[in-house]
Amino acid sequence: MHGIRTALDGTRRPAGLTDTTTGSVSPDGIRRMNNWHITDRGHYFHSVALKAIREFPVTFNYSGEIFQDIPLARVLSGLRILTRNFYDGYSKPLPRSARQTQDDFWQSETSAMLYDGLIEAHKQSVPKNHKSQASTGDENEQKASWVGLLIAIELYLEQVVVLWRPFTRDNYLYTMRIFQRDLSYALHKPDAPQLANLLFWESFIAVISLKMHEKQGDLAKDLGIISYFKGFAWEQSQVLGLKTWKDVKAVLMRIAWPYDFTDDDYVKGAWEVVMEYKAVVN
User: According to the UniProt record, where is the region Disordered (predicted)?
Assistant: First the structure.
């Protein structure tokens, strides 16, 4: 449910809707929202919303079965398209404020495409009653945990392309603990070496996010979680043989990363801290 306010703000501001007009039953507000929803983009959002609603019985009445790993290709493709359309060169033709960019994103098919991929992936993660259904798809396709991938994408939207408002203090640490547990499981799976690029990407984005939230005082109850993600990112750096920042960027871009990231020096510094941190611990 995190981020729903960002999505609503992004669709109502361009239509001239304010907190006042959307806080009550305003005929003008209803008309404007209806006009947007009958566009092609609005229809796409409707279809995605209906898919999400159909997931409610599984999400809120979970039987306790272990979720299956999901194929990565479709979700990562949507994330790369998002990065290309709303970060790489997006502001060069016409400078846009961060809020304008967010509004454009939430009204675009790109945001619906990303969520569509995540919803379809979630459906694939739910264990099937029939083994024949569970075994469909390319067995050689890379797969990973839906939960860990979803959290990493949330952090990516928050910290890198900045299309999502930051996590609140109430839910951030809880989310990161779930992420920590998910990565711990992933590291012990037989295919962990084949997923080293993804695992490094996930853990490094977590390090970037933790750095910002630590400054805001959101980690006062669990500073040890920083050590975990720094150590995880260091381990994956060793697995991949990363020696320079150029090596790191190459790995990040294999998953999803801007070609011309404006905060390149900042994240480079975060990686250097990871390497220095492990050296101090050892």
Answer: 1-28
